[in-house]
Design a protein that fits this description.
Layout lengths: L1 H5 L6 H12 L10 E8 L2 E8 L1 H8 L3 H18 L2 E4 L11 E7 L5
Antiparallel strand pairs: 1-2, 2-4, 3-4
Helix pairs in contact: 3-4
């Protein structure tokens, strides 16, 4: 539903993901449970970091970091592809890194 609502403002998938993320930081991904920081972005990439994630905290504390990565974190990769974007990350809180670094990139033109 949120993805469809962003379409009302813009057709560009990168701008839409930026808008969708800003909305979700008001609810449900709000402090103190979640801590997010936007990072420098440009017309080809939208970037933000997650510094605190209750799902990663909980599942790591219960020895289920791999479950968190495969059931929670990898969902973002599939969503990005559905949105026509590519998501890259070099770190995941669930794997013990200090942050999840989300970098949404435009997909190269086909052909």
């Amino acid at each position: 539903l949120l993805w469809r609502l962003t379409r009302l403002r813009n057709a560009d998938p990168l701008l839409r993901v930026r808008q969708a993320m800003r909305w979700t930081w008001r609810f449900p991904y709000t402090p103190p449970g979640y801590q997010m920081e936007e990072q420098p972005s440009d017309e080809m990439m939208y970037a933000f970091d997650v510094l605190r994630c209750p799902a990663a905290d909980y599942l790591r504390a219960h020895g289920a970091a791999e479950l968190c990565r495969t059931a929670w974190c990898e969902l973002d990769d599939r969503l990005a592809a559905e949105w026509g974007l590519t998501l890259t990350r070099s770190g995941l809180l669930a794997c013990g890194d200090e942050r999840c670094d989300f970098r949404f990139h435009r997909q190269p033109p086909q052909g």
